[in-house]
Write a structure and sequence with these properties.
The chain is α/β, with parallel strands linked by helices and 379 residues long. It folds into two domains: 130 residues, Aspartate Aminotransferase, domain 1; 235 residues, Type I PLP-dependent aspartate aminotransferase-like (Major domain) (Aspartate Aminotransferase, domain 2). The protein has 15 helices and twelve strands. The protein has a seven-stranded mixed sheet with strand order 2-8-7-6-5-3-4, sandwiched between helices. It is globular. The termini are far apart. The model has no long low-confidence stretch (mean pLDDT 96).
């Protein structure tokens, strides 16, 4: 029997080194400024606080409370509570999809660059990972011809992010329909990780994959749009109830269920979406304009394709960025994410997060630009 091991998560190991160092300024976050429990409860009537303080800290049902699942379903066009299962973040859903839908000898198709969770779990199970590219020259749109050429009868999943991580590029409806045709031809399941979908930067609404393609499976969580990563509440949405039952059964071997306080607070946040998201989106749009101006005046030292959604930009520098990012973290207490964590092809990129408070972002960006100019003079 072959032994497979989990590859190291370069992204998470980078953050583990620096994120919680005292005095560190985060300029790589893919989430906005967080919300305190007091702030969240303060958005509702005092009765809600009383109910929270009297909450029984017992187990809750594996699929999630029906009221929370219905609140999540309302984020989509034609879904109900029965189409939703809560998870401990979107990452748990990705892991369980790999565990339940693949076996050694199968393959999955993933975008490049992309998030490591699904590829790491797949490789640890002996699943072949085939990558289709997104390139800056095409504004990070997926290469559908390459995708079609990679798919075959052993392809079990086609995994995408919408909006794309880390570039913020959105899929168009025609892209979704074309991907659905490829998936249908080989019998593959489409998995669309949509934790950034609601964070549109031009004020428009981005459709979910499941609202365009009925057979799609989509994921979401409370961390990115609402700044509530500490709740560890995510979900999977699907009209395939047999698949949802398989995921619930597999969850018995992982988290088993979410936490009662987490689901209670998540339901409040969903009711208060406008109050939570509006000021954070306003700050992000202001920060993005500031970043765009810096890139435009950089004399081509910085290159990007402007993100359409999410709180991150993937910016290309004229040199490999790992040493520069380490210098910033160790000497300036400024944390960026170097592109090497996404693969060798992205060694000249950095991920910049712009979801922070506008004043703090302006200060941190100024430090970055000053240090970039100094670094370039010595490269």
């Amino acid at each position: 029997m072959s032994l497979y091991t989990l590859p190291e998560s370069l992204l998470e190991r980078w953050f583990a080194q620096f994120e919680f160092v005292p005095g560190m300024h985060m300029l790589a976050a893919s989430w906005p400024s967080s919300v305190t429990t007091r702030e969240l409860l303060g958005l509702e009537e005092p009765e809600t606080t009383t109910r929270y303080l009297e909450l029984n800290l017992d187990y809750i049902e594996n699929p999630g409370t029906e009221s929370l699942r219905q609140a999540i379903a309302n984020l989509y066009t034609r879904l109900d509570a029965q189409d939703i299962r809560t998870m401990s973040g979107a990452s748990e859903a990705l892991s369980l999809l790999i565990l339940t839908r693949t076996q050694p000898g199968d393959n999955i198709l993933v975008e490049d660059p992309g998030y490591e969770t699904i590829t790491g779990i797949a490789q640890s199970r002996g699943i072949e990972v085939r990558r289709f590219s997104r390139q800056i020259e095409q504004d990070w749109k997926p290469d559908l011809a390459k995708l079609a050429g990679l798919a075959d009868r052993r392809t079990r999943l086609i995994s995408l992010t919408h909006a794309h991580h880390p570039t913020g590029a959105l899929l168009q409806k025609e892209d979704m329909q074309a991907i659905a045709q490829i998936a249908e031809k080989v019998g593959a399941l489409i998995v669309s990780d949509e934790v950034f979908r609601l964070i549109t930067l031009d004020g428009t609404t981005a459709p979910s994959f499941i609202d365009v393609v009925e057979q799609a499976v989509v994921l979401g969580d409370m961390s990115k749009p609402w700044g509530l990563g500490g709740l560890r509440i995510g979900w999977v949405a699907s009209r395939d109830h047999e698949l949802l039952q398989q995921l619930s059964a597999a969850r018995d071997y992982s988290s088993m269920s979410s936490s009662a306080p987490g689901e209670f607070l998540a339901e409040i946040a969903l009711r208060q979406t406008e109050n939570i998201m509006a000021p954070r989106l306003a700050a992000a749009r202001s920060n993005l304009r500031r970043l765009a101006q810096a890139i435009a005046t950089s004399r081509q030292a910085l290159r990007w394709s402007r993100p359409q959604a999410g709180y991150t930009a993937f910016v290309q520098l004229p040199f490999a960025t790992k040493s520069f990012c380490r210098y910033l973290a160790e000497e300036k207490r400024l944390l960026l994410l170097p592109g090497y964590v996404y693969g060798k092809a992205y060694e000249q990129f950095v991920r910049i997060g712009f979801g922070a408070d506008a004043l703090q972002f302006a200060e941190d960006l100024d430090i970055l630009l000053q240090e970039l100019e100094k670094w370039q003079s010595h490269v």
